[in-house]
Design goal:
The protein is of the alpha/beta class. It folds into two domains: 78 residues, Translation initiation factor 3 (IF-3), N-terminal domain (Ubiquitin-like (UB roll), Roll); 83 residues, Translation Initiation Factor IF3 (2-Layer Sandwich), CATH 3.30.110. The protein has five helices and eight strands, in the order αββαββαβαβαββ. The strands form two sheets. The chain has a four-stranded mixed sheet with strand order 2-1-4-3. Strand 5, helix 4 and strand 6 form a beta-alpha-beta unit. The relative contact order is 0.10. The N terminus is likely disordered.
């Protein structure tokens, strides 16, 4: 029986930060902790300046010519990277697509309740896919489906716009609405 050592995923995702003697470039561009430029200098001189300030020399941009390093405490640098990553996650809020299903010959009460759901989803900031399945001989009355979708679009005109116009996909009529950005 083979036993595997459990690993903590949080530590696996952190990449190795090149700092101090691990920086193997002859010349580097040096920045201070606050982002002020100190200039281009040999790595050994930059390392001496970092040690004099009792800080670390951390590689920031490896691809630049010459590579960019920063004189900063390594723990502070890791914290700043973590904050930047968290900010990126906040900004990248994914917009969900909610689906509301209709039928071609539905009653007024059912229509109103589904219309209210569509409005609620749009106000929350989600996209809404409208779908209408034709069953049996109802496929011969496609205009009822198009009329229903046009009515939904008119009712939600102040909070949403049509992203995908109503179109037939087999026996299904599909359209998509997206919320209007608020200023």
């Amino acid at each position: 029986m083979i036993r595997r050592k459990k690993t903590n995923n949080r530590h696996q995702s952190q990449k190795f930060i090149q700092a101090n003697h691990y920086i193997r470039f002859p010349e580097v561009r040096v920045l201070t902790e606050h982002g002020e430029m100190l200039g281009v200098m040999p790595t050994s001189e930059a390392l001496q300046k970092a040690q004099a300030a009792e800080k670390d020399l951390v590689l920031v941009t490896e691809g630049a010519k010459p590579p960019v390093v920063k004189i900063i405490d390594i723990a502070k640098h890791k914290y700043q990277l973590q904050q930047k990553k968290a900010e990126g996650r906040k900004k990248a809020k994914t917009q969900e697509i909610k689906e509301v299903r209709f039928t071609p010959f539905m009653g007024e009460g059912d229509f109103v309740s589904r219309l209210n759901k569509v409005k609620k989803f749009l106000e929350k900031g989600d996209k809404v896919r409208l779908s209408l399945q034709f069953r049996g001989r109802a496929i011969t009355k496609k205009e009822f489906g198009y009329d229903l979708f046009n009515r939904v679009v008119e009712e939600t005109a102040e909070i949403g716009t049509t992203e995908i116009i109503p179109k037939m996909m087999g026996k299904k009529l599909v359209a998509q609405l997206m919320p209007i950005k608020k200023k």
